[in-house]
Design a protein that fits this description.
23% of the residues lie in helices and 16% in strands. With 603 residues, the protein is α/β, with parallel strands linked by helices. The longest helix has 20 residues, at 131-150. The chain is globular and about 70 Å long.
């Protein structure tokens, strides 16, 4: 008799814990497969410290194959689930497609950036959900300070030294707190930068910082931020974003080249494509994390609306703490469904929250006891060391070195602006030049195929149709997420993007003028989106995943060339005569502006 097959989609806090616990419980009695876009588990709470130069990137990652030796790892992203056929369709990192069969399926796909219909945000802002985005922000902030120091115009210097963070939740507060310390250190001990004053702004429509936490902790965080010079503006957000800055909802215009979008997250759209009952985009499950009427389907983490047994009528919030605990209970119940152990409902006890504000400052309430200052800082770092599933010694060593040595403020240029667009369907994976993309935009006859009704049928719509349904309307053709530029790999970066083209003398800067441009085939493998046509129905259990890039439940328009049936995409202009064909080692050409000048910043 063959062993049961368990497929886990996603290796975040919930998925990783489920795989690790199931591997221990089943003891080779089941085949466990983990489907994830990357080969590591990311400890997301420490990501702001990566952006601030405290921790090296690999410190906050844990190898999946190294820590889960009895779990089969498949690199790819799930873009369709057929519950009737018990299969998961996925796309690999190089564009190849595959199918996984299962007897038990655990959905732990996590969450994606939450977008709002604010003009210019999708083109000029960057999120903070994955390692590539943290690396980009670290390089970008460092570069802006260096360019500001070399600028002759005082207005340009001030704009480059202004950094706007939208969203005063956990992530936004920590990014602003660590960022202010990072830029101050770059200016304070440099004699050639005397007089430069980096300015950080933290905006939110909420009445106070950290609205999810106790008011005493909010006051602590607010006080620390203001002491570091952060301009905290509550009840205020961004009304419009442009290349030169942002317009706030109170009518104020702020000149800046940096806009960090931390307004929150929403569940992965894969859930909504299943055609099963959802609650605000989260799949409804019972207290045992099982989907009613689908004994083979479990869900946990941010994609699951888990009943809060301590507060009837409520659901557990979308936090890492709950996701980690979901994973353990979910694994126990999956094993119980196979005859191993007993089922148990999900109960939780609030252990409190911690917010790292950089240095020795933090806000914490362990076991309900509010703390601030160095004591809270020690508790916060101790909690993170205890919660991390690996790399504890390396993280502690980096903290020790940061306490006694100055930080290395250098830009490596490894992640470019066009690699991490805000509307990226997977912030954990940077867009890579030359990577094939997958999208059925057109058919030979009608040009599009679509979802029929709400049965979860396969649906693939054209990029143009999906773009029109995005918040803020159709994306600009040359922006990340819109139509890719003909001469840029993976699409031209936004013409007016804050931190646009890299400085000419920086690593990875402007290429030689006579170099041929690379082809525009780039980007991560595309996920099928809902269209408006009439696709053939194939049963109520099958669903195609929409693009994971939009807010408000809408599917985003991914970018990049396609492998579609029908007319091929425009390959762009031919390379100059007598030039070698473009190759992967040729840098992308400079971004062109309509006013005849080159765009500033990172292309």
């Amino acid at each position: 008799m063959s062993r049961p097959r368990i497929v886990i989609v996603g290796a975040g806090f919930a998925g990783y814990r489920t795989a690790r616990t199931l591997s221990r419980l089943t003891r080779h009695q089941a085949d466990i497969t983990l489907l994830n876009p990357t080969d590591y588990f990311l400890y997301l709470p420490l990501l702001p410290q990566v952006a601030a130069g405290i921790l090296e990137p690999r410190r906050v990652t844990v190898s999946l194959s190294g820590s889960l030796p009895h779990v089969r790892l498949v690199l790819g992203e799930a873009d369709g689930v057929d519950l009737d056929e018990h299969t998961v369709h996925y796309t690999g990192p190089e564009g190849g497609e595959g199918t996984l069969s299962f007897d038990r399926l655990v959905l732990a796909a996590g969450s994606v950036n939450k977008l709002l219909p604010v003009p210019g945000v999708a083109e000029h802002a960057h999120g903070f959900r994955g390692l590539p985005e943290a690396l980009y922000l670290r390089d970008h902030v460092t570069r802006q300070v260096e360019l500001a120091a070399a600028a002759d115009d005082r207005g340009e210097c001030a704009a480059r030294c202004t950094f706007v963070v939208v969203g005063a939740g956990y992530t936004g507060t920590e990014v602003a707190a660590h960022g202010a310390m990072y830029t101050d250190a770059q200016v304070r001990k440099h004699p050639m930068r005397t007089g430069m004053r980096p300015r950080w702004m933290l905006l939110d429509v909420a009445p106070r910082v950290l609205p999810e936490m106790d008011e005493r902790l909010s006051r602590t965080a607010d006080r620390v931020l203001r002491q570091r010079g952060v301009d905290v503006r509550m009840g205020t957000s961004v009304k419009e974003a442009t290349h030169d800055g942002v317009v706030l909802t109170d009518g104020t215009s702020v000149d800046t080249r940096t806009l960090v979008w931390c307004v929150g997250v929403r569940p992965d759209p894969l859930v909504e494509s299943l055609g099963l009952p959802v609650e605000r985009g989260r799949l409804l499950v019972d207290p045992h994390l099982q989907v009613p009427g689908r004994p083979e389907l479990f869900a946990c983490g941010d994609v699951a609306a888990v009943p809060d047994l301590t507060q009837p009528g409520q659901f557990t919030p979308m936090t890492a703490q709950h996701a980690w605990r979901h994973g353990k209970v979910c694994a126990q119940n999956v094993a119980a469904s196979l005859g191993i152990g007993e089922r148990r409902p999900y109960h939780h006890r609030d252990l409190g929250f911690v917010v790292d504000l950089g240095g020795a400052k933090a806000a914490a309430n362990p076991l309900g006891l509010p703390m601030s200052g160095p004591a809270a800082g020690a508790v916060t770092r101790g909690y993170h060391l205890a919660a991390m599933p690996g790399n504890r010694v390396r993280v502690a060593a980096d903290w020790l070195l940061d306490a006694v040595l100055p930080r290395q403020a250098v830009q490596l240029g490894l992640v470019r602006s066009w690699s991490v667009p805000l509307e990226s369907s997977s912030p954990e994976v940077a867009r890579v030049a030359g990577r094939p993309e997958r999208d059925a935009e057109q058919t030979a006859t009608t040009g599009t195929t679509g979802t029929t009704g709400t049965t979860g049928t396969t649906g693939k719509g054209s990029r143009a149709e999906r773009a029109k349904n995005q918040p803020g309307g159709e994306p600009a053709k040359n922006q990340p997420g819109g139509e890719p530029a003909k001469n840029q790999p993976g699409g031209e970066a936004a013409k007016n993007q804050p931190g646009g083209e890299a400085a000419r003398n920086q690593p990875g800067g402007e290429p030689a003028k006579n170099q041929p441009h690379p082809p525009r085939a780039a980007g991560k493998p595309r996920r099928a989106g809902d269209g408006g046509g009439t696709g053939p129905a194939r049963g109520s259990g099958k669903a195609r995943k929409t693009s994971r890039a939009s807010g408000g439940g809408r599917a985003a328009a991914p970018s990049g060339p396609t492998r579609a049936a029908g007319p091929p995409a425009d390959p762009g202009p031919e390379p100059p005569a007598n030039q070698p064909p473009p190759g992967p080692d040729i840098a992308p050409g400079p971004v062109k502006r309509t006013d005849g000048r080159h765009a500033e910043g990172d292309s």
